[in-house]
Amino acid sequence: MAGKRIILMGPPGGGKGTQAKRIQERYGIVQLSTGDMLRAAVAAGSPVGKQAKAVMDAGKLVSDEIIISMIAERISQPDCFNGFILDGFPRTVPQAEALDKLLTEKRMDLDKVVEVAVPDERLIERITGRFTCAKCGEGYHDTFKQPKKPGVCDVCGGTEFSRRADDNAETVKARLKAYHVQTSPLLPYYEKKGLLMVIDGDRDMDVVTTDLIKILGA
Ligand code: ADP
Ligand code: ADP
Ligand code: ZN
């Protein structure tokens, strides 16, 4: 129903974007992906994009300051009044604290924080096989999710696809380290608030979606 506010957590390549896209359609809420926002800033050549690019290419985290102001601005837009699913944010304790403050100011609560758990050894394959439709952003995978008709996007019929600059085996290691060191402390942070649910993301994507919907409710 209306008004759901959800955080989707999980390691890089764990399936957050895939699941967030499905959830936003089902619940009529918006997906807020800080990674997508940063890539748009890089593509636009904005000052934020210029600062973020090297950091992203190295697989490190962009500064809390940049991320927090980006989210504060985005969450204030009218399409977020009806609810949102945060994908890839927060990623540090200061980001989570800033989000709490922001939501308190807006008299909003979080409904659930869901961790999509996937073991490290799976993630290299997930990430190095990832590609997306250049037109609509639908996600695909070399092994796990090819377009039904080769070379044609299932969703929009587009025929151009792109791969992320940071989706390579070298960068994955740095991203996994950032996840374990900087982001994983958020699990106990939300556990203490009674908001955390964990689902096994090491299964077929449709099975993961079914579980997620069970957790999030009608
Ligand atoms: P993935 O889908 O692999 O988890 P994202 O698209 O979420 O990756 O993020 C890509 C990159 O953008 C990250 O490696 C990091 O450099 C930067 N980034 C995205 N979200 C955040 C955030 N909340 N805090 C800091 N850096 C971020
Ligand atoms: P994240 O947003 O967490 O970085 P994505 O949703 O982009 O992760 O998924 C990473 C890659 O793995 C994509 O190519 C996607 O198609 C694929 N993928 C997502 N979920 C699964 C799954 N449950 N099983 C196999 N592959 C998956
Ligand atoms: Zn498409």
Features:
218 residues, alpha/beta, three-stranded antiparallel sheet, 8 strands, binds adenosine-5'-diphosphate, binds zinc ion
Mean pLDDT: 96
Distance between the termini: 6 Å
Major β-sheet, in short?
Answer: 5 strands, parallel
Q: Residue ranges: pLDDT <50 for 5 or more in a row?
A: none
- Beta-strand share of residues: 15-25%
What structural class results from the helix and strand content? alpha/beta
SSE pattern: EHEHHHEHEHEEEHHEH
Shape: globular
Overview of this structure, please?
With 218 residues, this protein is an alpha/beta fold. It has nine helices and eight strands. The chain has a five-stranded parallel sheet, with helices on both faces. The protein has a three-stranded antiparallel sheet with strand order 6-5-7. Strand 5 and strand 6 form a beta hairpin. The longest helix has 15 residues, at 169-183. It binds adenosine-5'-diphosphate (2 copies) and zinc ion (ZN). One adenosine-5'-diphosphate binds at residues 10, 12-18, 126, 129-130, 139-141, 144-145, 201, 204-205, 208.
Any chance you could write out the topology, listing elements then pairs?
Blueprint: E1 4-9, H1 16-27, E2 30-33, H2 34-44, H3 47-57, H4 64-75, E3 83-87, H5 93-105, E4 112-117, H6 120-128, E5 130-133, E6 139-141, E7 161-162, H7 169-183, H8 186-192, E8 196-200, H9 205-216
Parallel strand pairs: 1-3, 1-4, 2-3, 4-8
Antiparallel strand pairs: 5-6, 5-7
Helix pairs in contact: 1-9, 2-3, 4-5
The chain binds adenosine-5'-diphosphate (2 copies) and zinc ion.
